[in-house]
Design goal:
Layout lengths: L4 H32 L4 H7 L1 H21 L1 H18 L9 H29 L6 H32 L2 H17 L25 H21 L2 H9 L4 H20 L1 H7 L8 H23 L5 H29 L6 H50 L16
Amino acid sequence: MKLTALQQYGVVTANYWAFTLTDSALRMLVVFHFHQLGYTTLEIAFLFLFYEFFGVLTNLYGGWLGARFGLRLTLWAGTLLQIGALLMLIPVADSWPKAASVAYVMVAQAISGIAKDLNKMSAKSAIKTVAGDAQLFSWVAILTGSKNALKGVGFFLGGVLLTTLGFNSAVGAMAAGLALAFAGTLVLPAEIGRMKEKPAFRALFSKSTGINVLSLARFFLFGARDVWFVVALPVFLESTLGWRFWEVGGFMGLWVIGYGLVQGAAPALRRAWGRSAPPDVSAVQFWSAVLTAIPALLAMALLRNAAHPGVVVVSGLAAFGVVFAMNSSIHSYMVLAYSEREAVSLNVGFYYMANAAGRLLGTLLSGAVFLWGGLVACLWISTLLVGLAWLVGTRLPAVARGALSQPVC
């Protein structure tokens, strides 16, 4: 059976959704399981070091592989690698020496990081092959928003699975579920996303000014989020506020679901504010400037004991999520708007390499800065990083409109 371009994209997206559930649940499982075993926040951050580092490399080379060999290959490779990473974690035991546990889990997380970014690059690139300029922002927003909503469900799932099944059984169950999702991708044609002319290896670094500048802004933006969200926030909620694992997982899950809903609704929100045209450079700059204020206000509120810390963090995180979602949605549109269809996977891969590098920076800082100065210090670092994202965004060139009005099937 020959699939239409839209059906191909639907298969890719469905697999990406299933993958997202396991990936976000695994992150929550790792944080809580090893914190429960007495690991410091810095040691937990190191568990994710290879996950983020190999995500940087995967995004860079994965885009080239997708353009050269097709997105089906990258999607299959990513899904199978994630199944393998989950299976690797089944034998992890509490009795293992700490050094051995850290090293082993870092390797499994490295494989998971490669898998995650192969899947993300495949899904984000596939949308460019079916959407024209008029639909592009809406389609990107729907994909990104739905993915993040499911990521939130995955956070909650991780907390529930740790409570009910335990770490080892939970990762085994997730591996089985993802194997079923992989079976659905066997119908994809080999040529999806493949360039007609094979790109040379040097094409990895042949990027436009718009892609380069936007990628640097993305680096700082996601570093600003993860410096307090990845390790510092769940540990703060559990150790300082006394929340239980499933409560932390549920709250963070609801936050990511809300964040995803705002991303998906970004085009409608812009229309409600009288912005019917697709986003441009001014939108990137405006939302970055607004976001800069939020972690700074949160830090000051916590320092001055303006309210109960739980109220400050919950309300502040809600505000941060709404504004960050608008930033991320517009960024995701802009990278495709700057790209030509033939080179889309190369550009998307390069762009998400910067995204992964920002997450790597944020993850390491989240563990180290929290250990040194607590959540308040993490929030000040977040303010600095968002400010840098805004500053970089002032150098973005204008987007050429109308060049890609017809979808490519």
